[in-house]
Design goal:
alpha/beta; three-stranded mixed beta sheet; 12 helices; 12 strands; 48% helix; Short-subunit dehydrogenase
Length: 331
């Protein structure tokens, strides 16, 4: 049996997922990484290998049960073990609920609820046989607090939080820890690949500016280190950024207060109800002021592979099958 621990990371082609995989590699883990985009996960795998990681890069849509099962099977086939599973795959739709349709909610639940549940349910029997394991579920502050103009995302993240917290209670007796990671705003460059509806340029503007504010947001590398550290220590929960910690605690104690406050925020947001979706990179303002205000997010997008995925006109990644040979083993 391979002596090095093995981690599976979903949604690892860019942003936080890529950084979580890189941090686990730096902690001594061999990796199985996946994403829906062949172009994106190939680029991420090559970048991780250049840093010395042993990597299997897999094209998989973890909202599809067969893909999730095959992903876990790949880890066992290539490395004969599975120590850590990080469920990070996500998609963001921004706009008023009146601009959303059933497909938006279906896509969000598929990626961020079933895309958590399917890999976990495939991994738990492997971990139970070994008598140990760590599961890290990357959720969001949107899974704790009702964020306006993010309803499909928030609903799916609430479901993921409930699933992860329930797992933590039930799997402890098998030697498996479950960490619910609840990030606040992080500078990953994600607005480039988020989907926007309604007044798309205005929605993109407020979302991206909020994602760029240095005292409200967190550096994505620091967030990845904190999440991995908490997961490897078996902590039940980690909430990232002081603002997110305050928001979650206040909403837990005084939900009526936070709901009323967020109702006022909602009334200040754009009201256009156009149902057409476009990715952030297609609707971004080119004004000098906007570019200055979003400098940190644009830098993060360039650093963390947010531009490597090939997308269709609706902003969703193309899914193409690739085959990667088993990694070369140093032992």
């Amino acid at each position: 049996m391979n002596g090095r621990p093995v981690a599976v990371v979903t949604g690892a082609s860019r942003g936080l997922g890529y950084l979580l995989a890189r941090e686990l590699a730096r902690q001594g883990f061999d990796l199985v990484v996946c994403a829906r985009s062949a172009e994106g996960i190939t680029a991420a795998g090559e970048a991780l290998r250049r840093e010395g990681a042993t990597v299997s890069a897999v094209v998989a849509d973890v909202s599809v049960r067969a893909d999730a099962d095959a992903l876990v099977a790949r880890a066992v086939a290539d490395f004969n073990r599975l120590d850590v599973l990080v469920t990070n795959a996500g998609t963001i739709q921004v706009g008023p609920v009146a601009a959303m349709d059933v497909d938006d909610f279906t896509m969000a639940m598929g990626t961020m609820y079933w895309g958590v549940a399917y890999p976990v349910l495939a991994a738990v029997p492997v971990m139970r046989r070994a008598g140990r394991g760590r599961i890290i579920t990357v959720t969001s502050l949107g899974g704790k607090v009702p964020a306006p103009h993010l309803l499909p995302y928030a609903a799916a993240k609430h479901a993921a939080v409930g699933f992860s917290e329930g797992l933590c209670v039930e799997l402890a007796k098998y030697g498996i820890s479950v960490t619910t990671a609840v990030p606040g705003l992080m500078r990953t460059g994600s607005p480039d690949n988020a989907l926007f509806k309604g007044n798309k340029t205005a929605e993109h503007a407020w979302f991206t500016i909020a994602d760029s504010l240095p005292f409200l947001t967190m550096d994505a590398e620091r967030a990845a280190r904190a999440i991995v550290r908490a997961g490897l220590r078996g902590r039940p929960e980690i909430i990232l950024t002081p603002a997110a910690q305050v928001a979650a605690r206040v909403h837990g104690l005084l939900p009526e207060l936070t709901t009323r406050a967020l109702t006022l925020v909602d009334r200040m947001l754009p009201t256009d109800e156009s149902p057409t979706a476009q990715p952030g990179r297609a609707v971004a303002s080119d004004s000098a002021v906007f570019r200055w205000l979003t400098t940190l997010t644009r830098r993060a997008a360039g650093r963390w592979h947010e531009g490597t995925d090939r997308t269709r006109g609706d902003g969703r990644p193309e899914i193409r099958t690739i085959r990667t040979p088993p990694p070369e083993r140093a032992d």
